[in-house]
Amino acid sequence: MRKIHPALIGILIGAFTSFVNSYSYAVSGYTTSEISIVWIPILSLFIFKLLNVDYSVRDIVISFATAIGIDITTTLTSGMYITYGFLKNVAFRLKPFGFDVDVPKYLFNYGKSFIDLNALPIYITLAISTLGGAFIAYSLRSHFLDKERLKYPIATASAVITNLMKEFKVGRKFLLLIFALGFATQMTFFIAGLSIDLTPVTSMFLPGSVFAISFTPIVFALFLLLPLSSLRSFFMGSFLTYLVFIPIAIKLFSIPLIPSQTYDDMLFSVSPIVLGINVGFVITFLLYYLIKYWTQLAMSFSVILKFGTERVAFAIGLSYIAFLGIIATVFAVYLKPINNIVFLAIILALFLHLILIIGNLRVVGESGTGSQALFPLVTIVMYSLGVRNTMLYAVLDPYTGIPMPQTIAATTMNLLRYSRLNKVNAMETLKYFCLGVAIGSFITYTYGNLLVGIYGFNSPQMPLSKWIPTTVWMAAVYQGKLAMQSLSTILFASLISILIIIFNRFIGLALFPFLVGITLPPDIGFQILLAYIVKSIVVRFGPTFHERLIVGATIFMLGCAVALIANIILISLGVASP
Amino acid sequence: MTLTLDIIIIILFASILILWGISLYLASRKGVSEEEELVVPRLVSPAYKIIKIMFYNIIRSIELALIIISLLLTSFSTAYTSTYLYSSSEIEASSIPYTYDILMISNNYEQGAEYVKGIPVESIKIVQIYNGLFIEHDNKSIYLLPLVINCSSHVKIYVGDIDKICKLLSQGNTAIIDNKKAIGLNTIFIDGQRFFVVKEDLSNFVGVEILPSIYLVHSLGAIGGTPLVATPTDIIVLPENEKVIEALCSTDCNAKTIFLARNSSYVDVAKLLKHFDLVAIRTNGKIHIYSPNLVPSSRTFIGLALSALFSLVFSITVSGGLAERIKLISQRLALSGVTYGMLSSSLAIVMVAILLVFYIPLLIVASLSGVENIFGVASASYLLSAAISIMVIVYRASAGLKVRGSKVLSKPSIVLNHTIKIDVNTFRNELEKDFSLDDFFALSEFEVLEDTNNMVEMRIELIYKKGLSSIVSIEIYGEKINGIWNYNLLADVWSLEELSGREQEKLVLMALSKIQGVFTKCITE
Q1: Closest residue of B to A267, CA-based?
Q2: What are the sequence ranges of the domains in chain A?
Q3: CATH code 3.30.310 region(s) in chain B
Q4: What is the pLDDT of residues A40-62, one digit of tens each?
Q5: Is residue A98 less than 8 Å (CB to CB) from chain B?
Q6: Bridge-partner residues for B222, per DSSP?
Q7: Running DSSP on this structure, what letter comes out for residue A244?
Q8: How many other CB atoms sit within 10 Å of the CB of residue B331?
Q9: Is any Cβ of chain B less than 8 angstroms from the Cβ of A541?
Q10: Interface predicted TM-score of the whole assembly (ipTM), two decimals
Q11: Total CB pairs under 8 A between chain A and B
């Protein structure tokens, strides 16, 4: 038995999973980043056993922390680099439509050299600044894990299964069968995707409603890991938004609709309305949460100020967030004539970042996935204050821009819960996570450059058509093309959300997962409904079956992940189409 | 040295790396290890046996066979007699200028007007090509979107200056750009073919709305109600001929074809929808918009509802005997401790599995039957009716077993009064001794928060052995009031499992009663 430092194994695994994610995201739009928390520890275990390395539980946690640090930077660097590359590339195509988008060289300037050195400093700087979320999460861990007693279900599921896999307590035949099933179903999905567009039917009865039925195995399996109350809130949020609130908003505000649109076209058309509804709900729910938990939060903050470690961690976190503000101010001063509103926008955005970190920690703790549900609030605030500078959005907006301290905070909290369940020192875990993020940002930035260099923006493997909706949407925000109906939608949504809070006693709805549900399109909502039905039956059989469901769903997801890798290999060989 | 933006960015880059290094250094010196228990139950669940019992009893029953046959027959008959319509909507024509009687839009480039042959129409064809054209002029590259127009027949379409434009294009080698475009261009070459450039006012022509938020000119759709439309100055109008189309559309053609037609007689919409993605007919002040998506007619929906109702009545009629037999088995199982939840769920799982298996023949027959569009309605009918049958049977077989327990305690707490103060160490020893032998709970933590002459505060954490990470935490507050010790025991549950309120209450009561037992033992000894 040899001894290798677990961080090295973590770097190896992180480099692999982030490569899979970057590649897969660019080529097909899918990533395994949501399930990384579950499949990375299993990969670590596998590598340790394969290399015949002597390991302890602490080693698994450390390699996990490093690997997920690297993996999470995919969404920050390579994903955004490719997105901004596409935006720059379609800019001339959008010009006839009144868009004059300027993507500065600091965001994308891929030229003759192998790696884009113009944009490198900004991406790495912003990626590392996101660590502010990690330190704030660390300082608040006692509040969320002990006081609010949040489950962080994905982390707990991951701990359960690592525990079982360590000693191979699960039957091998069962594992192989489920793995093969996952692989087969996901491959079938890639070859013959199941998707039934029901929008023409529903829009005949409810003009403006959007609905479709589809089934993506990896998504379905992920939802089986989440608590029942969250699943219920997810699909109710999704269905209510797309089948009730949007048609009402369209009728109420006389928003003209293009007739006879398909599901995808409708999603694009109604996206500002969804945004307005989302922001309306987020504002009310966040205020409600802050008011309800005010005493507990205040107590937690006073505890933070008393304990040395937590105080230092919180201060470090704040300094990273403030650093984002400094970067934003520098760009505001140098790239456009300044007015005071811009500074107000920057300060408000920073303040919102802090509030949303706390909010996202609560959302992910309760529902397992945050899904960027809270982020559009920052976009709308910056938009309403008149910010029209691409660079400012890139620096400050977690929704369309690069840094996402809220997601990093949630991942850190998941990691801390995992380390607690494995009895490992939290500070050590955080240290390796930070190491992973720093190293990872360089690695994944290189991947982004590689993909652009190899494929360019016109290849069949990275088809432009997939990116048009995203880039047009970003261009619309940066150029100020969103209609003012958004404001009325926000007020409308706030009123409804107040009603929901009042009636919550009788309905018994989990509020924060409802927010996440609003951002989920109805075809995902349908899969969540299926997952809810399946899980509610299985859970009644007792805790052993619940545990088996968790194990089974995880192994199934692993099979799907391998199918994903197989699919992107086939795409890159030109055998399959994206 | 002036501080350019590039230099500042390098400074910021260096600063963040320094900040990162500092934070890592500060972080690596401290920290404590907090721990949580991860409990995984090691029980043998009787669920498989129960499912097997249910399965054997159900599969051999005649009632199930009858239900399956009725489901298949009603689904097939509903689907076979279902009718479909093209999805359509209707709008007021007042806001749309009168430019056509029939509008046909295709999301691809359409070659000829063969599809409109056989229909006495005169039409003008407009092709929006989204692959732009780069025109070199004055060392600059100008990007224009081509709009190809074919005014084949002599049409009287009232669209702005269409007559003028058609006349200009009739020569076959004219290109038109908007007169507000500030470039001096006389000729351009597209793939070797020469075009003479003429400037005209295009805004009247291209800004014409043909449907809400759809214009003659290119658009990217509408976002939140605001249409994203091309500006007239970025358009170039070209005549349609083979060379032009080949030049613009050689590899992949991202184009939309619009036919504006005048007609005064009957039109076969169904035939048109086979070739176009949208057809609109304007009559009597209204515009009817059709798309090739088929939707079930209202008769079909009524048929579906009727078949669901039938399956409800039928399953109630037929399931009596089956429900009685299952009830008998369930009652015996319930005596052995199987819960209502487990019984109803195993019954539901068995029914769902069997009915799903019989869904497959329906699919096969439906796809082989050759009747169009039968699949959707057949599935909907079958799945809906099956769900209703399952609910009826599960309800009849297990409803009587649902235990409606009465509440013993209104709050998860107990108050005890004694004359003496509890000795904390004796209590701790007794707890450890007792819970080491307990079947249900294990003692995880025992903390004494306060122990004075007038107050005692303790916290006990118990792990439920038969659950998935379920923890009961009990806090004991003891206070001496007027010479009597008043002890308040409060309990709280946290679990990873999906415990209902009742199950949580049961855990709490069990834990509290055990703690009360040990407490009383210590205080009376």
Answers
A1: B223
A2: 6-572
A3: 413-524
A4: 998 888 888 888 888 888 999 99
A5: yes
A6: B227
A7: I
A8: 13
A9: yes
A10: 0.83
A11: 250
